[in-house]
Amino acid sequence: MNAPCAKRCDSCHACRTTCPSGAIGEDRFPLHAESCITFWNEQKADVPFPGWIELDWHNALFGCLRCKRACPENAPHLDNVLDGPAFEEDETRLLLAGGIVEDVPEPLRSTLVEWRLDVLFESLPRNLGALVEKEQRRRRQVGHPSVCDVS
Ligand code: SF4
Ligand code: SF4
Hints:
Elements: H1 6-9, H2 14-18, H3 37-41, H4 66-70, H5 89-97, H6 108-114, H7 124-141
This protein binds iron/sulfur cluster (SF4) (2 copies).
């Protein structure tokens, strides 16, 4: 094993215990890609999330990064992670509606291009929809007003 963090990996299981989907086995490597959330939220737009992915597991528009954030090797670099764009509710509705990125009005389209979300635009209804649904459920549980009604 030639990975730079291999030595630490001998006594560390942070990534494995953080992964919600069991994609990282007891031996850590190789990753069970078919169980990784990233594998599924980077599928083509018409591929639905499998039913075994629980709503709470979604935490990013694309990718996941829970295991990378938990890894002590990455701790010195976490401050270098940029916050992504924020979308207003009307913009969120547009993104959830799907379609083609060329029809998205400015300045939203420029934001999508800036963050390279334009190339992943067609997958946003699925991925963003899961995050919105998760937030809606959380708000219902705490008796908080609903966020962007996608139903
Ligand atoms: S990216 Fe997420 S789902 Fe994939 S292995 Fe890491 S924690 Fe698990
Ligand atoms: S969290 Fe990082 S150091 Fe720990 S086992 Fe996973 S890859 Fe290795």
